[in-house]
Amino acid sequence: MTQKSPLLVASVAAAGLGMVMYDNTAITVALPAIRDAFHTDTSSLQWMLNGLSLMTGSMLPFSGALGDRFGPKRTFRAGILLFAAAALMGSFSTSIGMLIGFRVLQGFGGALLLPNSTALLNANVTPETRNHTVGLWISISATGLIVGPLGGGLLISHFGWRAALYGHTVIALFGAWRIGKLDDGPRRENSLDFPGIFTASATALALCAGLIQFGRRHANYPLATTLIVLGLLLGYLFYRIEHRVEHPLVDPSWLTDVRTRGVLLACAIYNGTIAASTFLISVLSQDSRHLSPLQGGIVVWMSCILMPVGSRISGRIKNVPDLRKIMLRGSIALSVGYVIIAALSQGPFLLMLATLSIAGFCAGLLFSGDTIAILNILEPAKASSGLATLSLVRQIGAVFGIALIGSASELFGRATSIDNGKSLAIALAGVATLSCYFLLKKALTATVHD
């Protein structure tokens, strides 16, 4: 392997993850405009966000296998171009259903690029520069979280919500061009766990549909209950399948190992609470404070501005005890931050913005920290599959977070008021995030003593 600049490797890998982050924030800012343009409700907005994440999570195992067979370079390039092309086509949507369809297609592109960006990173860095490069990768990617709300808000204010989907093309062309400077990863043929993939996808879909149905204004409660029970049964079936197949989608030993189980569960929870809170904060700020899309973008931008700083700090950590300390502090501060944001959501605006920026810093600590934690826990031969599982957990966590906490906001809103419902749901996200402290404490303490 030819020695590559950590900045070059990180910037190419970040073109993929950064574009996904740009999309997430720009679309989040556009949600009220999309709702008004198509005269739709919160449940449709939840499906618009979750359609992408469900497809990404479902297709991650296939994309990992395609990367193994055809090389991560070719697969990454196909994914980044497909993601951008689907976004551009989505800008011409004439109905919310059509837009959701293109979001699902974007999810397929996202599945191709996300695990293969980490595979490219692993193939082009040495063990000595790995943590530094991971920190750079997360930090550069996080600029998408900063450009997305501001650039998206500005475009939406002047040209409408469709303009939020135009910026992907520039990022995709940069990544497709600069990837030629990197070495390809190793190629090998792996068997796919088709039963596991099917049951995992069906589990996520059934639970997501059931949770969103519960939150609808005219909910069909028997249908919602049936879907949730079906999802739980499918989840148990998935667990049993993974113990019997030769090449499982998720290594069963990771579910019994307190270290990997704790990190993955915590990752799912805080990815869910962060995604749901960002969704609710964007809609609440534009509805209750009557902010323009650009002003709403500034609110989301404040929640992202310090994420790269947090990621860089985590990326520079060299030992597990320090990683444990910083992730525990980050998780409890994020939990408290969301409760404070909920209390201030209709109060002093500047104080709420300051709290948002601190919460974003804590999220950055966790986003980079979990990647390093998994790499430290697993042996090198299992690093790629561990990172793929981490990507899957992030997507599924975001899906469940938006479905569960988004529906909770609707239920709270019917009991109080729409705005109060969203504030209470953000507080619920903060309480849920507190569980990450205990999960990470147990997992990373075991890693220190290993």
UniProtKB/TrEMBL annotation:
Q: Which UniProt keywords apply?
A: Cell membrane, Membrane, Transmembrane, Transmembrane helix, Transport
Task: Please tell me whether the keyword Signal is annotated for this protein.
Answer: no
Q: Which residues form a coiled coil?
A: none
One Pfam family linked to the record:
MFS_1
Compartments reported by the entry: Cell membrane
Domain Major facilitator superfamily (MFS) profile residue range list? 9-444
The topology of this chain with respect to the membrane is: Multi-pass membrane protein
Main location group: membrane
A GO molecular function annotation here is: transmembrane transporter activity
A cellular-component GO term for this protein: plasma membrane
Q: What is this protein called?
A: Unannotated protein
Question: From which organism does this entry originate?
Answer: freshwater metagenome
